[in-house]
Design goal:
- The protein is an alpha+beta fold.
- The chain is 32% helix and 23% strand.
- It is built from three helices and five strands; from the N terminus they run βββββααα.
- Strand 3 and strand 4 form a beta hairpin.
- The chain is globular, with a radius of gyration of 13 Å.
Length: 94
């Protein structure tokens, strides 16, 4: 994984991207980037960034799994990544 860093949306700390998680609130379908050591909310649905970067299959499996959730809204996930990318200047990684 790269040396990219991002800001935890709960603590405000800038951490390595690989030490965070993407966290959804099933009640709203909203997403956030959160440090793995940040305080948890009771309804958090999270996946560690490091888990998704293990292989392309891991990412495919996660997205398919999300699609089975009644609360999942693909547009909200896409909007999160657009915002997250801009806020943390995560451009041109491909």
């Amino acid at each position: 994984m790269s040396n990219a860093q991002a800001k935890c949306e709960r603590t405000g700390k800038v951490i390595p991207l690989s030490e965070g998680a993407y966290v959804a609130s099933p009640g709203t379908g909203e997403w956030a980037f959160v440090a793995t050591d940040a305080p948890e909310q009771p309804s958090d649905y999270s996946v560690a960034v490091a888990s998704l970067s293990k292989s392309p299959e891991a990412l495919v499996d996660w997205i398919a799994h999300l699609n089975e959730k009644s609360w999942f809204d693909p547009k909200k996930l896409a909007d999160f990544f657009t915002r997250f990318r801009k806020q943390n200047k995560l451009f041109h990684a491909l």
